[in-house]
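Summary for the steering committee. The consortium agreed at its last meeting that each partner would contribute one worked example illustrating the joint modelling workflow. Our contribution is presented below. We chose a case with several input lines so that the handling of multiple components could be demonstrated. No manual editing was applied between input and output; the record is shown as generated.
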Amino acid sequence: MSLTEQMTALAKQAKIASRQLTTLTRQQKDACLLAMADAINSAAPAILAANAADLKIASGMGLSSAMLERLELNEKKIAGMADGIREVAGLPDPVGKLLDDRVRPNGLKLRKITAPLGVVVIIYESRPNVTADAASLCFKAGSATILRGGKEALNSNRMIADVMVRAASKVLPNFPEHAIQVVPTTDRAAIPELLSLTSYIDLCMPRGGEGLIRAVTECSKVPVIKHYKGVCHVYVDGAADEKMGVEIVVNAKCQRPSVCNAAETLLVDKSIAGTFLPAVYPGLAAHNVELRADASALGILQSKLNNPQTTIRAACEPDWETEYNDYILNVKIVDGINDAIAHINTHGSGHSDVIVTADETLANKFLQEVDSAAVYWNASTRFTDGGEFGMGAEIGISTDKIGARGPMGLDELVTYKWHCLGAGQVR
Amino acid sequence: MSLTEQMTALAKQAKIASRQLTTLTRQQKDACLLAMADAINSAAPAILAANAADLKIASGMGLSSAMLERLELNEKKIAGMADGIREVAGLPDPVGKLLDDRVRPNGLKLRKITAPLGVVVIIYESRPNVTADAASLCFKAGSATILRGGKEALNSNRMIADVMVRAASKVLPNFPEHAIQVVPTTDRAAIPELLSLTSYIDLCMPRGGEGLIRAVTECSKVPVIKHYKGVCHVYVDGAADEKMGVEIVVNAKCQRPSVCNAAETLLVDKSIAGTFLPAVYPGLAAHNVELRADASALGILQSKLNNPQTTIRAACEPDWETEYNDYILNVKIVDGINDAIAHINTHGSGHSDVIVTADETLANKFLQEVDSAAVYWNASTRFTDGGEFGMGAEIGISTDKIGARGPMGLDELVTYKWHCLGAGQVR
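What follows is the complete predicted structure of the assembly.
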């Protein structure tokens, strides 16, 4: 079988499975999920054995220790996967929710109702836990999944999916076995093949670094929901509470710099820069944050700080659009809120941006004009997260404007359709 | 300036304009729209002159009389355009609607609020009225538009857009003049250039025949919302009211066969085919509908009808997936509802499909399992339309599952963002 035939068969099976998933009740889906969770726990030895095989191959491939750590499973991580699936079982069913309801003058009743997407392809990097997370969320949302993890995790991913499908089939004899499938090859050419199959695949969600996401988006003919990167900003306005500004900046940068909702750039209004920059510096220096500053900020930092503990240097143009995932922060002095908004809308990634101010009018202007998925007034960017937003489990964060925007939970994993109920109406 | 530079400049200007549009109030937008409508009326002579120039070139190009008729404007069509714009002014503002509202345990207030998309590209065929319709809807939704009509309508389209922009600029001195732009060239290469500019363009909506839409979708790097075609079905179930079934089938096929929500295929349950096909035939024959039937249906039609008035022939495989836009109907006998649903989900276009039945359980099964934008129980497919759905003006119909699905009015022309209001919360 050629790769094209193999991917077509996979996608076609997924489509057929997705049709059967539309017929399942919430009770049936939750019973399957709970069985999957129990099976993940009890199959821990088999999963660990598959993972050990992956780790052996991976260390032979010369993977970094960070990569190996992400790949490695243990009893605790496996228990975490099972708990994650149980949590999904406990969440409300996102399918069948009434979004709108209207009766037309001719008596036609229209109901806008959430419905499953169909077939979702998830492309991700090495952590095998994503297999269980993504498959369980999509299953609860009534969709079939095709999972493509890192090539170094193939044995782990296949074992996890296999355990889940076998467990569900025991609880529900007509469980469609192709509802959860792992792409059975590590051939990179499989991805463009799969993502050209617009008749069978409804959505692709890539999760990983910007390179992976750009490569997927470039080759895909099916819709892709994604964020490329998180270049998040904190704008400290002239009317900001200085102490609050310091806490938010330090938290947004330092609490977990490796994630997409960490801040990369601090914008400070020129009216307070002279006092705010020296005030925020100690908190950043305590985390060894390197500062990359525009000329004005550099001037203030150099004149006001004696013997700075961290690197402070001039920012270069690409810095303003870089997601560092590290203890590095750009600093720029802006001339009021319009300048701040223009900088964010030009250089930002449309992810999460903050204004710190006591002025409600300015805050509302910022909320309205900053073109990002999440816009904050007086809080840290770090809250852009499905759990923090109260969505339960999260499948990802979108900076797209078509479909879901911001954190994506179960409710963002469905489409809708119109049920039109008549009594013989014709036009 | 190269074509790439020209399209980049156009898109960049649109993006800047779109930023300014986010600051407009409903009152400002409506005042602009009303001024645009008045100006369209009073500029009728200039618009007709531009249209006459287009018509002269077009008749030299040997366009069909149907195409020339679509291109031709007159006083009545111009008044219709103006009325359409006034109607848009009267519709509620789709921007700033609260979709969700939650307070997290840490006191963070989250508000999910509709927001403008940004820059929308509309690609359409010859009718110049689309220029006014699409531009006014997008403007009301807070987005800038880049319009690309048929090459034969360039003068008309430019004049209409120009009249609208000049009128709005008089009412609102800071009206961004690039909020409504017509692509100033007929070069086909402009489309892929434009649709590669993902930093500036948020959405493309192609409107026209399947060929146009496929070509646009193929070349686009920006999200596209569209429907390729409407292959709509009426399934007459064994428990159908025969008279209602006849009325719905004849209406869905014959009331306006040229549109996407007209039916192309009649599916009849085998238990009633022997009586239903002869019953429905006269209504279809009265409109000279050609029937393309599967073997069983052909057998029934040939045995029960004496001297049929219309062509009745065997359907071939591609017929089941063809949008005829004409008085032609496929007819197939199915073995119950599962067979009907499988046929629709395999051969349909996910647009509009009907079950005619008195059995509520079967109807609910059909509503749940048919994977289409609009699924009907006992009504004609012809209601899938923004006006009929009570949306006011319609910009198009989507069979996509990401973003809007089904008829698209103003509410479907926006995205959302999260406003996150804190009091200094950090993680």
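Chain B touches chain A through 63 residues (CB under 8 Å). The longest strand of chain B covers residues 414-425.
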